[in-house]
Amino acid sequence: MIFVLIFLALIFDFTNGFHDSSNIVATPIASGALPPRVALYLAAAAHFAGPFLFGVAVATTIGEGLLNDMAITITVVVAALASAVAWNIITWYIGLPSSSSHALVGGLLGSAILYAGVDVVQLTGLVKILLALLISPILGLIGGFLLMKMTMFASREATPAVNTLFRRLQILTLGGLALSHGTNDAQKTMGVIAMGLLAGGYITSFFVPTWVILISALAIAFGTSFGGWRLIRTLGGKIYRIRPVHGFASQIAGAAVILSAALVGGPVSTTQVMSTAIIGVGAAQRINMVRWSILQELLVAWVLTIPSTAALSAALFFVLSRLGY
């Protein structure tokens, strides 16, 4: 069963990279800074490097801070991962920018609570996770707005040739954003694999082995290289017409929020942060240039994700337990 868990964890990691690549490359592609494939391969390389550079604080929060040890069984984790993978695929198919982080948290809560009751949830860890997921989009919106205002002020006397500079700078900002995303999101996979290893008795205390870091980094990088084109179109063109300065400002704002959260162990949704950063950047230039209906779609996805994946995970756990797993 542990091999099923690891396989599902890597599938989740792959779909996370595939699903969330849109958040990383949408603005450079939409603004013409980089060709699509070049942007995706650059992002994939940075995704692979990220988990090795900035520690495993997020993995510890997910793997050790959310649930009591008594609630962690391999079947609980398998059901959670299966529900999160299913949600990633469904939302990718319909082009809805949902949160892989929300999906995983909802999945873990659903199967664990059905197995051992609500007392297995560590409230301190749950509050930390929910606060990170709630506050980070707000910070993305504010950061994008302020950074765009400062960028516009600094370039107020520039000629149109400044767009060339912003296009080139997006190569650097893309790398920084992908590093931060790889750091934060790959650690969620590391955390659940380590949970499974602990539950199965393969390790005696919670820690993330080097081989787990390696396979998690490879899986998210591989998924990123394929790209979720439906979501790239949503973030890259439906909110407003992205220009080089918008891509530059939104990527810096998003990377700052995501990396800061990773360093303090806060799992965040890259989809949420980058979506609100893009909206903040557009609003800083002109409020009415943003297609605010997109925000409604995002809010619907955010509200639905945790209860939907929790219910699906609980159902999967029920079936697996009846089958003797």
Measured between the Cα atoms of the first and last residue, the distance is 8 Å
Main β-sheet description: none
What is the strand tally?
Answer: 0
Helix content: over 70%
SS summary, helix count: 12
Give the averaged pLDDT, no decimals: 85
How much of the residues is beta strand, in percent?
under 5%
How does the overall form come out from the CA principal axes? elongated
Strand/helix succession: HHHHHHHHHHHH
How many domain regions?
A: 1
Walk me through the structure.
The protein is an all-alpha fold. The protein has one domain. It is 79% helix and 0% strand. Helix 1 (2-30) packs parallel to helix 4 (74-94), helix 2 (36-53) packs across helix 7 (162-199) and helix 4 (74-94) runs antiparallel to helix 12 (293-322). The longest helix is centred in the middle third of the chain and has 38 residues, at 162-199. The termini are close together.
What's the short story on this structure?
The protein is mainly alpha-helical and 325 residues long. The protein has helices at 2-30, 36-53, 57-64, 74-94, 100-116, 123-154, 162-199, 210-226, 229-238, 244-263, 270-285, 293-322.
Write the layout of secondary structure elements.
Elements: H1 2-30, H2 36-53, H3 57-64, H4 74-94, H5 100-116, H6 123-154, H7 162-199, H8 210-226, H9 229-238, H10 244-263, H11 270-285, H12 293-322
Helix pairs in contact: 1-2, 1-4, 1-7, 1-8, 1-9, 1-10, 1-11, 2-7, 2-8, 3-7, 4-5, 4-12, 5-12, 6-10, 6-11, 7-8, 7-10, 10-11
